[in-house]
Amino acid sequence: MSFALLSSCIEDQDFGQYDQIEVIPTYEASLLYIEAPESLVNDAPTNVAFSQNFNFDAFSSKAFSERVVDGTITYIVENTTNKEMSITVELLDGDGNVLDTEILTIEPAPAAQLQRDIAYGDSGKSINIIKNTSSIRVSATNLGDNSTTSDLPEPKIILKSSGKFRVRIK
Amino acid sequence: MSLRQLIITALLWVSFAIHGQNKQLLYDFVEIPQAAMINPGVATDFQWYTGIPALSGISFQAGSSGISANDIFANDGLDINDKIRDRAISSMSPRDELSGTFQLEILNFGFRGRNPDNFFTAGMYIEGDAIGYWFRDYAILAFEGNADRLNQRFDLGHLKTRGELVNVFHFGVNKKVDDDLTIGLRGKLYSSMLDFRSTKNKGFFVTREGQNNIFESTLNADMRSQSSGFNEVRNAADNGTLGSVLTKRALFGGNLGLGLDFGFTYHLNEQTVVTGSLLDLGFIYHANDVFNYSLKGDTTIEGIEIVLPGAVSNPDTDFWQDLIDEVEGFLPFEGDRKKYLAFRPTKLYASLRYNFGEPLDRRANCECGVNASRNSIRSKYTNSLGGQLYMVNRPRGPQMALTAFYQRRFGNFMALKTTYTVDKFSYTNIGLGLNLQAGPVNIYAMADNLLAYRNIAASRYASFQLGLNIISWGRN
Fold this sequence. Notes:
The complex is a heterodimer.
Chain A: H1 2-6, E1 26-37, H2 38-43, E2 48-55, H3 62-65, E3 68-79, E4 85-92, E5 98-106, E6 114-120, H4 127-132, E7 135-142, E8 156-167
Antiparallel strand pairs in A: 1-8, 2-7, 3-6, 3-8, 4-5, 4-7
Chain B: H1 3-16, H2 35-38, E1 48-51, E2 58-64, H3 69-73, H4 80-89, E3 97-112, E4 118-133, H5 136-143, E5 154-155, E6 161-176, E7 181-198, E8 202-209, E9 215-228, H6 230-239, H7 242-253, E10 255-267, E11 272-286, E12 290-301, E13 304-307, H8 319-330, E14 333-336, E15 340-343, E16 347-359, E17 381-392, E18 399-410, E19 414-422, E20 429-438, E21 441-448, E22 461-472
């Protein structure tokens, strides 16, 4: 036993490697879903069918904003109305200043759905836009008429969105 | 050294490192008094013994069934992040564990009764024991996230851990029933200093294609953690009164419990012996300084969902806060201080031993009893060969180890025991134990997994035991 203990060996270890550990997982989840029936579009007094601010503190919360590295927001627009529609998504900071704007224009039904991926970080727009976003304003503009209706059942304009971000935990 | 100093010294061992330790080398090593601690029914021939306080029994064990320090920290030029990914996250199973235990005897003594067939033992020891299973799905979520893992369920049940620091007072009776059978019983009073456990977690987290939005995230959880002692100890650390608080908690000021040990030794014939013991069949009732947390419920979200025109009828609606409130409503995270019962990690030992070679001179005073025929002590033999079984109950079910052993005695002066053990930590565990008897002074030292000393960093298991006693056989 003593012989074993005295003759014990240890391969070269480098515990300094601990500092090189990087924990940067990628998380994804849905952000915002809005649907509006064609009747709402037709009944709007102007061609702006709706415009609404939505509080969204997920991005500006410390747990996220201090750790986010880069990522992508994906927008998907589905239009089953018979009008060309324009969806404007604005990311706003706490004072209501517009940090980023994305305009998504989609043809009338039976248009294919529109998908757009917006990158933030080194390969895209500034990640500070995401870090400072505390609300999202969504506006829908009718670029067609307001008297006819689609033949499709329950015609709607739908905005879907999701975020996929890398977050540095260590 | 005062009792308080002794306890503080013992606690330093906890901070150094902290599984019911398989003491296969010590088991049925009848020359060592501490063998009675793992089989109250051990065949003993001492008239009396006393351990040197704080030095009579020191044991430590640490094991990792899935990975070693060398796997991660070897200076091999590989990226440590790749090593963590390949050797831990991708390779380890939720049944892999990191565990450790230590035991430090503060007091241990034994004496033969008026009826020489009865031998009594008593004492106090501190034991720390902790185990954590590899929380694989949590590690995947932490290191890689949930992105591009649609429909993959992350199992919340992978969080399974428990640990405790307890002071144990014990008193045992060992009775030689006849020439063939010795039985033993030990009562234990546990004084828990610290305890934590989170072992019955269920649930999952999954990201699927959404029904409305792009993704839906579902969290289904039934999780609970229980702890006692930590709040008081933390406050004591802040106030500089850690030593006195721990001493108080060790001396019945914490949470109390009761336990029993059973054991026997039976001679099938002159040279063949079968033994068995059941240890720590007991519980601790945690009623003092208890803090529990639970997360129970089920929720599925697809982000903020707004269906016009109804959703904006109230322009002040805060949809984000509504979402948070909804999640917290369906999945409440709550704390409570409910008392709880914690069962101790019960261990089982069994062995079959064949003695052969020259019988040794008897050391026991065989003229000490009035009934000489019942008080006869069997001779030890130069050699012993056999097998042992060890089992301990763990959060993921019993763990088992099988041991083959050979013991060689060199007169009454020295005895060596070597073991080969197979368990979940190693298939190459060779151990060696040495017992020296110099007059009344008894010293023993044991270590196993000796082959791992070729590269200690690559070892997944390390264990040692040592102790110092004074023994009398009643001969003057």
